[in-house]
Amino acid sequence: MAQYENVVAVILGGGAGTRLFPLTKERAKPAVPLGGKYRLVDVPISNCINSNIMQIFILTQFNSASLNRHISRTYRFSSFSTGFVEVLAAEQRLDSPQWFQGTADAVRQMIPHIHDWRVNTVLILSGDHLYRMDYRKFLARHVETNADLTISVVPSRREDATGFGLLKTDENGRIIEFKEKPQGDALESMRVDTTRFGLSAEESEKRPFLASMGIYVFGYQRLVNLLDEDEARLDFGGELIPSAIEKLNVQAHLFQNYWEDIGTIRSFYEANLDLASPLPKFDFFNTDAPIYTRSRYLPPSKLHDCDISNTMVSEGCIMNGVYARNSIIGLRSRIDEGVKIENSIIMGADFYESFEEITANTSQSKPNLGIGANSVVRCAIIDKNARIGCNVQLINKDNIETKDGENGCYFIREGIIIVPKNAIINDGSVI
Fold first, then answer.
1. Which end of the chain is more exposed for a tag (fewer CB within 10 A), N or C?
2. Which of 73-77, 196-200, 309-313 has the lowest mean pLDDT?
3. Are residue 213 and residue 341 in the same domain, yes or no?
4. For residue 91, is pLDDT > 60?
5. Range of the domain at 231
6. What's the pTM value of the predicted model, to 2 decimals?
7. How many structural domains comprise the chain?
8. Do the beta carbons of residue 132 and residue 38 sit within 8 Å?
């Protein structure tokens, strides 16, 4: 199918990413590593490419250097194509002196750049979701119903529903009510008969709510009008969408495949570890709709005398006598003899240390890049370029839910130990 010349995709890079801290301490949320070798932003970009949508903007304003670097090195379309992936960082202008104040405000401030492409349809996406969608079906629903705005929705369980914007539709799929993260009676009032959307009676009983995925299709001029009508509306979910439902044709597009919001440490951790399971909910091995990322031309991983099961191992790793279960081992990971890794995410490194650097580390009593001999890592996330010494135990021995380690060398969130990027854990440490 031909490229959609009149559709522009806008990926919302999010704010400071506080729910994913400390993974967002030095990078924008869309640049957080995923699945050993990818970045979060690779998911919506790949969905766009696989849907022949090649004009893609990414809006961001926090710690965007890492994201800029990844995008510029990864996505280079043919010079004979109008395709591009471009990061638009928040900028101050005479008519817009403030930084982004919310999702709708971010798009409002970037409208002049989008306008230059003379598009008639804007696809607005989130940068922290894990799913595989053919957006052409989403766009087709928008056109068929002559909608001003179309919202993609997923059937939701009650225990999950309070974290999302919920909506109700009439028998034709037109949205007639929207509530942002309702609780109690307000939540119960948003129950719908999801059998109307093709769910079985049993599934409908389990998932009686329709949750917004936070991705939208707007007619371009309708979006501009909505943003111009009331500049006090700063957010899509809480402000712009309810206003649009009152006066416009707002339609729902049902998505029934796997979708996960991975904007929190717990959801990020669980979604990553599921990738390493025998039958993961999200499959990177789908050749019909691949997830793209940067080509690094690394050597194959080298494993000696290892015992590894239900674990994804990325390229360029050197592992000697390692025991690993239910884990993700990222690019260029160097893991020494006797290390035991369970239910953990090791993000790897951006570079290799030379023999001279390793020798210098020894003379300075500084751990090498990677994980030192006889260390134990359990239920942890080790960010890039971390140095874990020998005989270290990262096991949350006191079952702590939340803690900030001394000098920022580690954090505990929801019981998960997180060693931030470039951190050092010295030999013999027990956490």
1. N
2. 196-200
3. no
4. no
5. 7-275
6. 0.93
7. 2
8. no
